């Protein structure tokens, strides 16, 4: 069911985790990546246990440098497995069951379908959110578990959560750009079923919820637009229109029930909600994204490196194509469905579930892992053939959580900014690479600035970054002054002046010596070095 991409062995490339235990119990499969997109089965220890895992979520909750696993289960308690790779034997996995103060034992079977790692209180430790899927008073609501010390979790579920839920996908994101993580939680009942056997309030139980994070206090601010009372499944947040804030796309499903006068159909079209600021979301769903195939999970990614975020979604019911893939043209002006032959194979039955996105072969474009409930999974390599530039950014927190979840990254090329935010657990039964990927389109030359805002509040910038590479940014590390510090050595001196002289003249693309970004390295750039002379 669930698909996760994560660097489990901390060797610099993303590995693959696949949950097989939904409904009946089964192992959680781990495949290690050799860096070129070749995978070896490394399932061992506690991962071989037949647990009813729907979503395996990876997060470094103890900040020790390797990601640990939260096994979100329906039909039994959820499990927290500490990753002890290489601790007992070099190159070998050992997974340890963490008691964590008994919180998972106490909560028992949460009938969980989804969840996420998130540092909701910005204390540098990853907390856990569980999406419950049974609208019964004994279960209560979705759960929020606070990490107190890197080991002990306590129930910190806010009063605003206490409402019986048919929870599905969730996404944590900073929708109001105030430095903390807000929450959008999807609700949706499951059918075929008898409407007569459902409580009158089942529609309320299945409604979506929007929560604003006020310094760790979760405030329900759901309105008519964000409530979106259709039977939902997956949700993702991204800046699809490149305007600097995070928008929402929600998958809804169509349900047929029996009772009363016979069959009744609830038709679940999908929704694209544009963030217009100040907690105003506008439904701008184009006809091409309404969809009618009961889509389950979705994710934004720049599949062609043109600088616009494209959209992929898994299809729930039998349908061709088995995946919805939509190219974003001109920052959301138009979405075109692509009928790639790899998605046109009829498999009966199939039913798409989770997906994982990562550059598994380190060639600068994003690849896909697609999960299916009844048919074979698909690992798809992206053989992109254009020459567009790109950048990948890996983040390591120090004061913030080590995985940098909740960190916002912005990249400037010329006068254009693009933004990503590090998330763990979105769509539905899905987790993608924590490495942030930026397609740069037709931009040539250096990237003027990479700006990072950490959950701790610290802001950092790197200047004059070469494209077509993966960079690592460590929270708090000094990366130079930018501008006239052409060689980024924290001193503006003769070496920077020589860089200007050596690259003198009209340029396209230009080096970092074009300090004023005029397309010409000239006396104005020389004066900028002279005026900034000295340590910086």
Protein model, in words:
It is built from six helices and 42 strands. With 536 residues, the chain is mostly beta strands. Strands 9, 10, 11, 12, 13, 14, 16 and 17 form an eight-stranded antiparallel beta sheet that branches. Helix 5 runs antiparallel to helix 6. The longest helix has 9 residues. The model has no long low-confidence stretch (mean pLDDT 89).
Brief synopsis:
By secondary structure, the protein is mainly β.
In total, how many beta strands?
42
- What structural class is derived from the secondary structure elements? mainly beta
Q: Which word captures the global form?
A: globular
Strand content range: 35-45%
Strand and helix layout:
Layout: E1 3-6, E2 15-19, E3 28-33, E4 39-41, E5 53-59, E6 68-73, E7 79-83, E8 95-97, H1 103-107, E9 112-118, E10 127-134, E11 143-147, E12 153-155, E13 165-173, E14 182-187, E15 193-194, H2 202-205, E16 209-214, E17 217-220, H3 224-227, E18 232-238, E19 247-252, E20 255-258, E21 264-266, E22 271-275, E23 281-283, H4 287-290, E24 295-301, E25 310-315, E26 323-329, E27 334-337, E28 352-358, E29 367-372, E30 378-380, E31 390-396, E32 408-413, E33 416-421, E34 430-431, E35 436-439, E36 447-453, E37 459-465, E38 469-474, E39 491-492, H5 494-502, E40 505-506, E41 520-521, H6 523-531, E42 534-535
Parallel strand pairs: 1-34, 15-20, 31-38
Antiparallel strand pairs: 1-2, 2-3, 3-4, 5-6, 6-7, 7-8, 9-10, 10-11, 10-13, 11-12, 13-14, 14-16, 16-17, 18-19, 19-22, 20-21, 22-23, 24-25, 25-26, 26-27, 28-29, 29-30, 31-35, 32-33, 32-36, 36-37, 39-42, 40-41
Helix pairs in contact: 5-6
